[in-house]
Predict the structure.
Amino acid sequence: MPAPVTRQAKVVVTLWQGSWIAAWCVGIVVWGAIITAVIFFRKRSNRMPLQVRYNLPIEILYTVVPFIMIGVLFFFTARDENYIDALPPHPDVVINVTGFQWSWEFQYPQYKVPKSEYGEVTEIGQMWNGDLPGNENQLPLLEVPIGETVRFNLASTDVIHAFWIVPFDFKRDVIPDHPNHFEVTPTTTYSGIGRCTELCGLYHSRMLFRVKIVPAAQFKAWIAAQQAQQNSTGGVQ
């Protein structure tokens, strides 16, 4: 798995690793029991082997141990899901994300900066945003700071999309008339491509956006530059 870039992603990776460790432990016990039975209790005569189907302690063990394992897994899963889904009040940065066929729009309502530009579909059916190698600068840009809580408000204007940044280690659906929300705290710098992961039409695969996680000072400088651009053009685009 890619290195996580948020606190929430680290929780996801830890849960995933713990689940694999538990699965391997169970597998080793089961495989060990099967191999032991094959080697030491294989048929050597026609004598009926010892029967344990009415052995109450063993039957209780068969029942209780799986329930304990499921309960432990459920506890950690529920705990981590509650943490990931939590929306503490007063986030440091709020970003309104709008998905539509076939691009994204990002707005920072706290700072009143122009909305992120997005590509368009031409008459011949080609996407300007990232259709050609080296054309990434034409993709909409999502920039967030390290060490600050960032809330994403997700909305769609047409069909169901899905908002995915790979090292966030989880995705969130973008559904018409049903706003979705989640919050992360970035912990390290990152630069990459985000995408839609819900089949949403002809140009779904080209519904991309740029992602930059930067130091807080660099983020503030970027916001100031966007505000200066807005002032020089006489208002929000």
User: Anything to note?
Assistant: The mean pLDDT is 84. Residues 120 and 187 are 33 Å apart (CA to CA).
